[in-house]
Amino acid sequence: MSNNDLWIRDIIASYGVIVMIILCIGIWIIRKWPGLRKDIYKAHLLGFEIECAELASPYKEHLFKALQYIVSNDEMLRSMGSIRILEIGVKTGENIQFYPEGTHLIGVDWNVKLGEYLVKGHRSWQFSHVIIERLIVGDGSSLKEVPTGCVDVVVTTRSLCSVRSIRSTLQEIRRVLTPGGKYIFVEHVPEKKGTCKRWLQIALTRTGIWPSLFGDCRLDADCVAEIENAGFEKVSWTFLALEGYVSHSFHLSLSKQHVFGIATR
Fold first, then answer.
1. Angstrom distance (rounded) from CA 31 to CA 152
2. What are phi and psi of 158, to 5 degrees?
3. What global pTM score does this model have?
4. Is residue 206 in some structural domain?
5. What is the CA radius of gyration of the chain?
6. Is residue 255 part of a domain?
7. Is the pLDDT of residue 226 over 60?
8. Rounded-to-10 torsion of CA 50, 51, 53, 59
9. Rounded Cα–Cα distance for residues 200 and 132 (Å)
């Protein structure tokens, strides 16, 4: 056997082991990926999203004061002094603390165990002032289970970024709202065009890296124009950058620009 043959054999032997290791790791990741993705997103919800909600809490408290002045279009709820709220993307229920006593809540979320969490979870006492009327598994782009014009308020917070279609979701929001009903939104928006962060937001989204890790969240989703053109009678909002300590500062730096607003049906 020539020296060249020995050299080739040694290369195959050496790199063959490396290739086999890489293949084994790849197969393991493919098999485990659904579970890993679920665990990553769960940690994201119970960590960063709660921290982000705490940073936004003072601003949301001011925004949700509008709920105090809403009179239900439902005769029975009106007689009880209650209102009906539909929230898309309930997550860990951080908004429920702002809902008036006796609120009838329709929750929309992909979490099939949301009802168990809200009613029997270790934080269920924080949600006891509202009545869970219905829970729908989904993202809000189709609310066929909800009759037209039966909801007094719709709420979304950091949720439009992950729906299948922002336009379809807004059409459904407008449909289920009563005449004069309110759509309250707190959504993160992209950085200004031409900035390095905007480029990074686009790259992480379009490569699928960010959505695959964080519940289909799209960092480049800009909902403002969509809300403006959704056919609401009136839309008002303000831009605000969330600042403060979170355990994942890089994550906040890419999703800190927010729009807080209210649209009227």
1. 45
2. 50, 45
3. 0.85
4. yes
5. 23
6. yes
7. yes
8. 160
9. 40
How far is CA 29 from its chain centroid? Answer: 26
- Domain hosting 110: range is 49-264
pLDDT tens column, 12-26: 555 566 666 766 665
DSSP string, 40-60: HHHHHIIIIIHHHHHHHHHHH
Segment 70-98 shows an average pLDDT of 95
As given in the structure block, the two tokens for residue 239 are: 């831009």
Task: Report residue 132: phi and psi, to 5°.
Answer: -75, 105
Instruction: Check residue 111 and give its pLDDT.
Output: 85
Percent of the chain topping pLDDT 90: 67
- Tell me which residue has tokens 């006891």: 128
Here the CATH number for the domain that contains residue 256 is 3.40.50.150
Sheet with 131-137, edge to edge strand ranges = 131-137, 104-109, 84-88, 151-157, 177-188, 257-264, 234-241
* 6 located within any domain: no
* Residue 44 is assigned to a structural domain of this protein: no
Placement of tokens 């702002």 in the chain: 98
Instruction: Indicate the number of domains in the chain.
Output: 1
